[in-house]
Amino acid sequence: LRCVLLGYRNTSLHSTSSRSMASKTPVGFIGLGNMGSPMAKNLLKHGYPVIATDVFPESCKELQDLGAQILDCPAEVADKADRIITMLPSSPNVIEVYNGPNGILKKVKKGTLLIDSSTIDPSVSKEMAVAAEKMGAVFMDAPVSGGVGAANLAKLTFMVGGVEEEFTAAKELLGSMGANVVYCGPVGTGQAAKICNNMLLAIGMIGTAETMNLGIRLGLDPKLLAKILNMSSGRCWSSDTYNPVPGVMEGVPSANNYQGGFGTTLMAKDLGLAQDSATNTKTPVLLGSLAHQIYRMMCARGYAGKDFSSVFQFLREEEGQ
Amino acid sequence: LRCVLLGYRNTSLHSTSSRSMASKTPVGFIGLGNMGSPMAKNLLKHGYPVIATDVFPESCKELQDLGAQILDCPAEVADKADRIITMLPSSPNVIEVYNGPNGILKKVKKGTLLIDSSTIDPSVSKEMAVAAEKMGAVFMDAPVSGGVGAANLAKLTFMVGGVEEEFTAAKELLGSMGANVVYCGPVGTGQAAKICNNMLLAIGMIGTAETMNLGIRLGLDPKLLAKILNMSSGRCWSSDTYNPVPGVMEGVPSANNYQGGFGTTLMAKDLGLAQDSATNTKTPVLLGSLAHQIYRMMCARGYAGKDFSSVFQFLREEEGQ
Amino acid sequence: LRCVLLGYRNTSLHSTSSRSMASKTPVGFIGLGNMGSPMAKNLLKHGYPVIATDVFPESCKELQDLGAQILDCPAEVADKADRIITMLPSSPNVIEVYNGPNGILKKVKKGTLLIDSSTIDPSVSKEMAVAAEKMGAVFMDAPVSGGVGAANLAKLTFMVGGVEEEFTAAKELLGSMGANVVYCGPVGTGQAAKICNNMLLAIGMIGTAETMNLGIRLGLDPKLLAKILNMSSGRCWSSDTYNPVPGVMEGVPSANNYQGGFGTTLMAKDLGLAQDSATNTKTPVLLGSLAHQIYRMMCARGYAGKDFSSVFQFLREEEGQ
Amino acid sequence: LRCVLLGYRNTSLHSTSSRSMASKTPVGFIGLGNMGSPMAKNLLKHGYPVIATDVFPESCKELQDLGAQILDCPAEVADKADRIITMLPSSPNVIEVYNGPNGILKKVKKGTLLIDSSTIDPSVSKEMAVAAEKMGAVFMDAPVSGGVGAANLAKLTFMVGGVEEEFTAAKELLGSMGANVVYCGPVGTGQAAKICNNMLLAIGMIGTAETMNLGIRLGLDPKLLAKILNMSSGRCWSSDTYNPVPGVMEGVPSANNYQGGFGTTLMAKDLGLAQDSATNTKTPVLLGSLAHQIYRMMCARGYAGKDFSSVFQFLREEEGQ
Q1: Crossing angle for the helix pair D189-217 and D222-231, nearest 10 degrees?
Q2: Where does the UniProt annotation place the signal sequence (chains A, B, C, D) (predicted)?
Q3: Subunits that touch chain A (at least 3 Cβ pairs < 8 angstroms)?
C-alpha cells in the first residue's frame, strides 16, 4: 500500500473547493454503529469538531459525552457542516439518509463534501453522486477494509471513488480514521474495489478450505500441506496469512474456534453486492456466484456469527459421524 | 522451499538399502516424452549411466546419441538397473509399464528403487507400491511441478511420497533433475500434494480472472485493481505473479497471447484427478469441481493449447459482439 | 391449468370498484413492443377502445391505424383511462412509466386498475403497488408466459399478483389476450411465480442437455435415451416436450437450428431476476445461480439470439475439433 | 415403456447360444443383499432352481431355507450354472467376484450368460465383458431402477447393455424379477442409461427444492406454486410426482419426514459414477457436478439416511434461527 500512498504524499495540495482545510471546521458524521462510532471518535481525537446523528439515541449519547454535537436528522447535519461522512449498513439506508424527507440533500450546502463509507452497490453510489451534484455538492464513495478493531485503532483502509480533484480533501479527513487511503477512480470505483477484493477473498478462502480438507483426507499433514502450497502456485492470502485449518497457524480465527475476524454474514452480504454488480454488468462470475451461495448456506446453518474461515469446518464434517 | 529442504540436509544419511549411492550405477528411465527426455538428459549430464526405453523409437534415438543405452521394454530395463524413474502421461500407462506383460515388475530385482514422476491418481500410486513391495522393490511417487522449461534447466520441484527411509536415496537422483525435492509423507502423498496445489491454483486463477473482469466492467483500471488486490486479502499467486489480464504484468503468458506456460489441457487433466480423489474420499470440493468443468469447457472451445490463464479471455467476451 | 381456472369461473362476481365492466370503456396500454403490440391489438379485436402510448412513434402509428387513440405520455393515458395495462422491458422502465415526471401516477384517477405485465423484480412490483395505493389506485402484477406467437394468438398465460377482490376485473381484460389467467396471491407473487418457473425450466434444460450429451458420449442412442428418461424419474418438460438434441423431436427449436422459441438473452434476464430475488430473501439457489452464469456466458459467445435449448450445442463441442 | 417392450415381444426368438431356455435350468445368483435377496426369491417363485453365494452366511441361510442351493464362492457357482446374475454394491466388488482368485471367470463355462445388475462404472462393465469374452462367456450389464419395494414385488426396471442377440435370453430371466426390461445398446449402456437418468433426477430434485423454497419466501403458497409449475415448463418428475415440500403431496417421502424412498447416500454414489464417466469422456456436466457436491455435503450433515428429496429441508433452514 505504501507505494500507492507515497504517490499521493508527494502530490502538492491543490484544493479546488473553498472548504477551509487548514483550520478544523466541524465535520458531520451520520451512522454511529459498530464501525461509525469509533471512526467518529477518531475524528474527535484529531481535533475535529463533530456534528453527528443516528437513529439510536444511545449511540448518540456516548459520542455527545465525548464532545460531539448531536442533531436530530441528516438534514440538520447538512445545514451545519460542509464535510459529512456517512457509515450505514446497506443501500436502502444510504438512499434514506441522502434522499429521504429529512435527508442530507434536503439542506446540503453548495460545495459540501459528502463521503460515504458504507459498503453498498456501486450503482447506488453513482445515483447519490448525481443527486448531490444537482445540489452543487460532491459525493465520494469510500468503503473500508478492516473491522471494528482497525476502526478503533484508526488502521482502516479506505478505497475512494470520486472526482480526483477532491481526493486530497477526502484523504485529509479519512487519514484521521485509517492507515491507508487509496484513490480508485470515478465515483463507484471505491465500492467496486472493495467488492472485487472480497469476492476474490471468498473464492480463495473456500478454495483453501476445500484443498486443505482434500489433502488431509489423502494423508497429508496439514502444516506440511500449507507449507507446500505457500511455496507454490497455490499460495494465497487465505493459505499463508489466515489459514482456515486449526493448528496450522497461530493468532488467526481458526486458532480460536473461528471467533472474531470477519463474520460469515458480512461476507455473504458483500458477495450479494458482487453478484448484483455482476448481474447488472452481465459479467459471468461462476466461482464468485457459487461462493455467494456457500456463504448463504453457512449463514443458515449456524455459522452466521463465526469468522468466514469457518468454511473449513463447514466442509470438514465427515460422513458417517 | 529452502526451509523444508534444510531439514533434510541436516539429516544424517541412513540408507536402508544395499544400493550403492556413492558410485554412479546405471539408472533406468522409462518415458522419454516432452518432460522425460530433458530429465533423462540431466541424469546423463550428472554422470549417471542411463538405461532407457520408450514406445517411440525417435525419442530413444536422441537419447542414445547422447550415450544412453536403449532397451526394448520396461522389463529389460528392470533387469539391468536397480534404480528406475518413470515419467508417463496417465494412470493406464503407469499400470501398463509396471504391471503389463513386459512391465517392470516382471523382472524387477529385490531392493530396486522405483520412482514414478508421472502425475496420476494417488490410489494408483498406492496400488503400484503394494505390487512392488510383493516383489521386494520400493515404489515412490514423485510428481513434478514446473514445465518443460524447468525440466531442461533441472529446476523442477519434486513432491515425493513413500517410505521415509528411502527419501534420501530418491533425493540424490531427483536432485540432478530438479531444484527442490520435498518429502510429503507415505506413498501417494506426492501426488496428493501436487493435485491439491493445482486445484487451488485453478480456483485462484479463475477467481482472479472473474474478479479482474468484474472490476474492469465496474470502471476500475486493471493495473490499479491488481495493485489493490495484491496489497489486500484478495492477493494470490495468480494475481501477483501470473496475472491473467493482458497489460498488467510483463513476462507472463497473458503478455504473450497466452502462449507457453501451463496448458489448459494439462490443468483439466489435473483437475480430473483432483475430482477423482475427492469422489473417492467423499470430500466436498464445490469450487474445485466447478473449476474442473470450466477448464473442461475451455478445452472444447479453442483454449486447449493456450496457457491456463486464458480463462480471463474465455470469460471476457462481451455480450453483443 | 383448467382446474385452477374453473375455480374462478365458478366464483360469482363481486366487483369492489366502481369501474364499469359490462360496457367496454377505454383501456390504456403503455408499451407497444414485440409483446405489447399484439396484446393491444387483441384488446381492440375484443371491442375495447384502446388509448396507447410508446416511446417509439412507429409502434404507435401501427396501432393508430387499427383504431387506437395515441397520446403523448403515460400521464395523459392515466388522465383518460381507468384501466391501464403496461408491458415494458425491465424494472427501470416500469419505474419511469409509473413514477417518472410524465408517469401514470402523476395523473392517475382514484379507483384506476393498473396491470403491469412486464417481467420485473417482484420487489419493484411491491413498490409500485404502494405508490399506486397512495394515489387511490390499484396495482397488480401480471407477467406472461408464452412468446410473441402466443401473444398474437391470444394464448398467453398470465400469472397475477394483487388484491384478490380485483382479480375478477383483471381477469376480464387479460382474458382477451390470453388463454389462462392464474391468481397467485398478493402483489409480487405473479412475478414470483414466473421467475420460479423459469428458474426451474433453465435448470431442467441445462440438466437435460448435460445428460443427453453424457449419454451420447457413453454410447447411447439419443432417441432411445430420451425415451428411457421420459419413462423414468429423469423426465421433465425439457426432455419430453422441448428436447434440446437435434433429431430427437420434431417441431421444436432443436429441430430448426435453435431458431425461434425463447431466446437465451431473455432466459438470462429472468435468471438475473431470480438471482436478485434469492439474494434479497437470502435463499440459497446453487443450481439456479450456476444456470444464470451459464446463460450469461452463452449470451457472450454467440448464442444470444438462439433458443435457450441451444445450451446443448454450447456444451456439445468436442475437444480436439 | 410399453412401446419399447412391444418391439421386443413381436421379435421372433433367435437364440444364438445353446442354453436351453424352454426348461428351467439352474440360475446362479451372487450377492444376496437388500436388493439381491428379493430378486433371487422371485427367481425361485418363478420355478428357477437357484444356486447362490454371498459373503454373509445369514443371507445365504434365508435363501437356502426357501430351496436355493448354497455354494462357497463365485467360482463354484460358475462351475454349476450357465446363467448367472450378480448384484453387488460397487465396482471393486464386481471386479473381485468376476476376476478374483475365487471369481466366476476362474471356472466359467463356454456360452455362459453373465448378467450384472450392480450399478457401477460403465468402463468396468466393459472390462468385465472383455474378460468374459476371452473365456467364451457373454457378459451383460443390467442395472435396475426401483428400490427394495420394487424388488420384492418384481416391479424393477432393468436397463440392459450387451450383445443384442443375447437380449432375449437375458429378458427371460430378468422378466421374473422386474416389470420392464429395456435394451439400451452395447455393453455399458445399461449403466450409462441408469447413471444419466439419476443425474438428471438429482438436478431436477435440487432445482425443484431451490425453486419451491424461493417461491415460498417470495410469498407463494407451496401447493399453488407446485400446481403452476406442473402446468408450465418448469414441470418435472420431482415437482409433479415426488414433490420435496411437506404438505404438497401425499404418499411421498416428504409427507413422511423423508423416510423411505431413495437414500441420499445412494444418490451421492450414483452422482459419483456420473462424474467419473463425465471426466473419462471429457464431458462438461456443470449442474451434474454441483449436484454431486450438494449430495456429498448432505451425507456429511445428517441426511445420509433420508430420502434424497430431503434436499429441500437441507436448503430450507432460515437464517437467524
Answers
A1: 130
A2: none
A3: B, C, D
Per-residue DSSP letter, B108: P
User: Could you check whether A2-186 and A193-315 share the same CATH topology?
Assistant: no
> Which chain C residues have a beta carbon less than 8 Å from that of D197?
211, 228-229, 232-234
User: From the candidates D171, D194, D269, D306, which is the catalytic residue?
Assistant: D194
C-alpha cell at B112: 530396486
The C-alpha cell 508417463 sits at B88
From chain A, the residues in CB contact with C300 under 8 A are 282, 284
Residues of C with CB below 8 A from D6's CB?
none
CA distances from B297 to B302, B315, C109 (A): 9, 11, 56
Helix orientation angle between B189-217 and B122-134, rounded to the nearest 10 degrees:
170
Could you tell me which residues are beta bridge partners of residue C28?
C51, C84
For residue range B215-226, list pLDDT tens digits in order.
999 999 999 999
pLDDT along chain A (321 residues), means of 10: 30 43 81 95 96 93 95 96 96 96 96 97 96 97 91 95 96 96 97 98 98 97 97 95 97 94 94 96 96 96 94 84 46
Distance between CA atoms of residues D29 and D71, nearest Å? 10
Global pTM reads: 0.91
CB contact under 8 A, A315 and D297: yes
Among B41, B171, B194, B269, the active-site one is B194
The ipTM assigned to this model is 0.90
Task: Say if the Cβ atoms of D296 and B275 lie within 8 Å.
Answer: no
- Tell me how close the Cα of C215 comes to any Cα of chain D, in angstroms: 6
Cα C217 to Cα D192: distance, rounded to the nearest angstrom: 9
| DSSP structure string for A286-302 | HHHHHHHHHHHHHIIII
Note the CATH number of domain D193-314.
1.10.1040.10
- CATH class (in words) of the domain with range B2-187: alpha beta
- Is the domain covering D2-186 a CATH 3.90.1150.10 domain? no
Q: What are the boundaries of each domain within chain A?
A: 2-186, 193-315
Task: Name the superfamily (CATH) of residues A193-315.
Answer: N-(1-d-carboxylethyl)-l-norvaline Dehydrogenase; domain 2 (1.10.1040.10)
Phi first, then psi, for residue D164 (nearest 5°) are -60, -30
AA letter at B302: G
- The strand pairing partners of B69, in sequence order, are B51
pLDDT in tens, B212-260: 999 999 999 999 999 999 999 999 999 999 999 999 999 999 999 999 8
Each residue's pLDDT tens digit, B20-71: 554 689 999 999 999 999 999 999 999 999 999 999 989 899 999 999 999 9
Give residue D139's identity as a one-letter amino acid code: F
Size of interface B-D (CB pairs under 8 A): 45
Residue C194 among the catalytic residues: yes
Residues of A with CB under 8 A from a CB of C: 268, 272, 275-276, 279, 282-286, 289-290, 292-293, 296-297, 299-300
Residue ranges of E strands in chain D: 27-30, 50-53, 69-70, 83-86, 113-116, 138-141, 144-145, 156-161, 178-185
The residue among D176, D181, D84 whose CA lies nearest residue D135 is D84
Considering only the C-alpha atoms of chain A, give the largest distance between any 2 of them, rounded to a whole number of Å.
69
- Which of C276, C293, C299 minimises the CB distance to A289? C293
| Cβ-proximal residues to C214 (8 Å cutoff; 6+ apart), any chain | D192, D195, D196, D199, D274, D277, D278, D281, D283, D285, D288
Query: CA B215, B216, B217: angle at the middle one, nearest 5?
Result: 90
Looking at the domain that runs over B193-316, which CATH code has it been given? Answer: 1.10.1040.10
CA distance D156 to D253: 19
Chain D residues within 8 A of C319 when measuring between CB atoms = 282
